[in-house]
Every structure is written in structure tokens, then in C-alpha cells.
Automatic annotation (TrEMBL):
GO BP terms, alphabetized: iron-sulfur cluster assembly
Record-given protein name: Fe-S cluster assembly protein SufD
PANTHER family: PROTEIN ABCI7, CHLOROPLASTIC
Family annotation (NCBIfam families): sufD
Residue span(s) of domain SUF system FeS cluster assembly SufBD N-terminal: 6-167
Alphabetical list of InterPro entries matching this protein: Fe-S_cluster_assembly_SufBD (IPR055346), SUF_FeS_clus_asmbl_SufBD_core (IPR000825), SUF_FeS_clus_asmbl_SufBD_sf (IPR037284), SUF_FeS_clus_asmbl_SufD (IPR011542), SufBD_N (IPR045595)
Signal peptide residues on this chain, from the entry's feature table: none
Pfam families in alphabetical order: SUFBD_core, SufBD_N
Annotated SUF system FeS cluster assembly SufBD core domain residues: 174-404
Length: 432
């Protein structure tokens, strides 16, 4: 991956996009590699999990027929039939899109970014990798902005409400490759939409990079639910940068479920830009063996009368590790902010470890803000009670873990997501 890759991927692209890619590459080259000397990367040594010199961009060309699809991809697609629309990506490239014709007639757009750069030029030139998530945000953000191959555009016109979610399935097939994809979601005033994506792969014996950039914009009075369920295989370094912009009286909620990959790094920033805006930020993770999760979140309250509520909970077993850094920033004009941040960790072995660093930065005087973090072991009293009722230790531990994660599960926005996440957690619990 070098400058020639940027030139190659820019061939045939509009001039504005080629210029934007070259600028992003320049930012990438000028930005230092993340180091554990930096507070934001203190607990994750990226040099040990990814080597840019060894990675190659994933090739185009993917199997489209049912008979040649990987079983895991086919199963995921068959589970997600009830939806307003579907998008399927293989190695970062969109291979299938469908949308309810009635929604299409109302002006809803669901398409690949490759198509959108020619058919929806104004929208992408204004928003893609600029206002929301520019390359200057970090090393990986710049690399993604330079080398993304494809992704999804979801646009909802004013006052259009989607009753069923839009579902995206992302499959990774090439070990030792680097996959860069983006998602851009725009909900115009008074609209409503839910977007659910699932990331899947087999286990790999070579280091593999999945880089994701997600830009979500809720205009005045819009409602958006963004859900990501990550179940990538071992050998994968999953890096996701997400930023949400919530305008006046909008509601923009996110849920990140991280269960797979060897190393996961999430950078999530919620911007509350208009009076009355609110964001609920839920996170759930469960690690075993030597999995590593690093969640870096921020809640930026820019306008007055805004609210945010973050709850991230995780369980760790074996030698798994988790790090959480969260900050609530209340800007000078954001009077009457109501913001909360909580991170809780449950340790199931003596070798696993969790580090939690919540923080507040308040520049207004009329606010309600709180943050908290806990790291604890299995509740021995609860275990004893369940054992006394005739359950085996394995059964008792499974119930305690599910109970610990239960308050996040209870707040999951969509029934189908609850079932999918519960099944995935139970599969991991079988090995506890």
C-alpha cells in the first residue's frame, strides 16, 4: 500500500474525488504512527498487530451465486430477510443492493458509493470524508479516506419514515489483505431510519486489516438508529472510526457489539450540534482467549439543551483484555446539558484484564453530567445460589454473564438484533 495504490484506485474517478484521495494520502504520510506513548493508544500496540508493508489491498471480484457463497455469508443473508433494503459487501465491495420499491418512489437512496460518486455527486462531494470524518482525524482515518474501495450510501428524504431496518452484511474472504470501506447515512428533517450491519469472516492465519469509516448525519427532528455487530474471525485487526452529527431535536442512537476479531479498535464521536438533540450510545463486548478490545468514545455537547447517555459493558475470559477511554465534553454554549457515561467490566478469569478511563471536560455551569467505571469478578453469592438450585457451574456462569449484560440487551433497539446478539454470546459462553 503506497501512493501508487492511491493513483490506481483513482483512475476513472471524478476529479474532486481523486484530489480528496491524494490529500488524504498526504495527511496519512504526515501523521505519526499510533504509539503506546500516546494516551489514546496507551493500551494497544498497533505495531504488533498490523504491518502495512505486508498487507495488500483486497482484490475485486467476488462470488455472486448462492452455490459459491461462503456458508457464513449465506446464513447471515437468510436471517435478514425482513428489511426495507439490503446491501451485501464482500471484501469491502458492494455486490448486491435491493430497496423496497415504495421507498424508492419516495426518494430513498440505497446504493454503493462507487455508483453514488457518479449518480449523486452533490451529496458525496459535500459530505464524504469532509464535514463529518475528515482525514485529519487520525492515521487510520486518513488511510481509509485515501484507499476506500466501496461502501454504502443511505439517504432518507424529509419526513420519510422506514418501518423496517436497512440491513448490511459485510463478509471478509482474503487473509492477509487490507479492506477499506465507508458508510454514509443522511436523514433529512423529520425522517426516520434504522441501519443494521454485521461483519463476518472465517478465522485467518495471516494478519488482516478491516478498516471502516462511518459518517451519520441526523438533520432537524430526524431519528436514526445505527447498529454494528462485529463477528469477524481471529487474525483480523478491526478498526472502526464513527462520527455522528445530531442537529436540532434529532435522536441519533448507536449500538456497537464487538464479539470477534483478534484486536478491535473503535473510535466513536457523537456531536450534539442542535438544541434538543439526544444520543444514546450502547456498547457490548465479550472476549476470550487472547482477544483485545479498545473503545475510545467522546460525547461533544456543542448546543444547549442536549443529552447523551453512554453505556458500554463487557465480559472477559481467558487472557482477553479491554480498554475504555471516554470523555464528555461540554462546550461553553451548551448550557443545560444532560450527559452520562458508564463502563462496566466483568472478569471471568485471573488472567484477563480491563482498564477504564472515563473523563469530563466541562466549560458550562448549568449542566448535569456523571461518569463511572467498574471492573469486577463473578458474583460469588449469585453463583452459590444458582449452584444450590441444581445448576452446574458452567450453567450458573452463563446465567450470571447474561444477567450482567442484560441491561444493555434490554435496551437494544430491534428485536432481530437482540436475538442475533444473544445467540452469538451464548455460542461464546459454551466455551467459558
Amino acid at each position: 500500500m503506497d501512493e501508487s495504490a492511491v493513483e490506481s484506485i483513482s483512475q476513472g474517478a471524478p476529479s474532486w474525488l481523486s484530489k480528496r484521495r491524494r490529500h488524504a494520502w498526504s495527511v496519512f504520510e504526515d501523521t505519526p504512527f499510533p504509539s503506546t506513548r500516546s494516551e489514546e493508544w496507551r493500551y494497544t500496540d498497533v505495531s504488533r498487530v498490523v504491518d502495512f508493508a505486508d498487507l495488500r489491498l483486497a482484490p475485486d471480484g467476488v462470488p455472486a451465486e448462492n452455490g459459491s457463497r461462503p456458508a457464513g455469508l449465506t446464513a447471515a443473508m437468510e436471517e435478514d430477510l425482513a428489511a426495507s433494503g439490503h446491501a451485501v459487501l464482500v471484501d469491502g465491495n458492494v455486490v448486491h443492493v435491493d430497496l423496497d420499491p415504495a421507498l424508492e418512489e419516495q426518494g430513498v437512496i440505497l446504493t454503493s458509493l462507487r455508483t453514488a460518486v457518479n449518480e449523486h455527486v452533490g451529496l458525496l462531494e459535500e459530505l464524504l470524508a469532509t464535514e463529518v470524518l475528515p482525514p485529519e482525524e487520525g492515521k487510520f482515518q486518513a488511510l481509509n479516506a485515501a484507499l476506500w474501495s466501496d461502501g454504502v450510501l443511505l439517504y432518507v428524504p424529509p419526513n420519510v419514515k422506514l418501518d423496517l431496518p436497512v440491513r448490511a452484511t459485510r463478509w471478509l474472504s482474503h487473509a492477509g489483505s487490507a479492506v477499506f470501506a465507508r458508510t454514509l447515512i443522511v436523514a433529512e428533517p423529520g425522517s426516520q431510519v434504522s441501519y443494521v450491519e454485521e461483519l463476518l469472516s472465517e478465522d485467518f492465519d495471516k494478519r488482516t486489516l478491516v478498516s471502516s469509516a462511518v459518517e451519520v448525519i441526523a438533520r432537524d427532528r430526524a431519528q436514526i438508529q445505527y447498529v454494528s455487530v462485529q463477528r469477524l474471525g481471529r487474525g483480523v485487526f478491526y478498526q472502526s472510526a464513527q462520527r455522528t452529527l445530531a442537529h436540532r431535536d434529532s435522536k441519533l442512537d448507536t449500538l456497537n457489539v464487538n464479539l470477534g476479531a483478534s484486536v478491535t479498535r473503535l473510535d466513536l464521536n457523537a456531536q450534539l450540534l442542535g438544541a434538543g438533540a439526544h444520543s444514546e450510545m450502547l456498547g457490548l463486548y465479550f472476549g476470550d482467549q487472547d482477544q483485545h478490545f479498545d473503545h475510545n468514545t467522546s460525547q461533544d455537547h456543542v448546543a444547549p439543551d442536549t443529552g447523551s447517555d453512554l453505556l458500554y459493558k463487557g465480559a472477559l475470559d481467558d487472557r482477553a483484555q479491554a480498554a475504555f477511554r471516554g470523555i464528555i465534553r461540554v462546550h461553553p454554549d451548551a448550557q443545560r446539558t444532560d450527559a452520562y457515561q458508564t463502563n462496566r467490566n466483568l472478569l471471568l478469569s485471573d488472567e484477563c484484564r480491563a482498564n477504564s478511563l472515563p473523563n469530563l471536560e466541562i466549560q458550562a455551569d448549568d449542566v448535569k453530567c456523571s461518569h463511572g467505571a467498574t471492573v469486577g469478578q463473578l458474583d460469588s453469592d449469585a453463583l452459590f445460589y444458582l449452584l444450590s438450585r441444581g445448576l452446574s457451574r458452567e450453567q450458573a456462569e452463563r446465567l450470571v454473564v447474561l444477567g450482567f449484560l442484560g441491561d444493555v440487551m434490554a435496551r437494544l433497539p430491534l428485536g432481530g438484533v437482540v436475538e442475533k446478539v444473544t445467540r452469538a454470546i451464548e455460542q461464546k459462553l459454551e466455551h467459558v
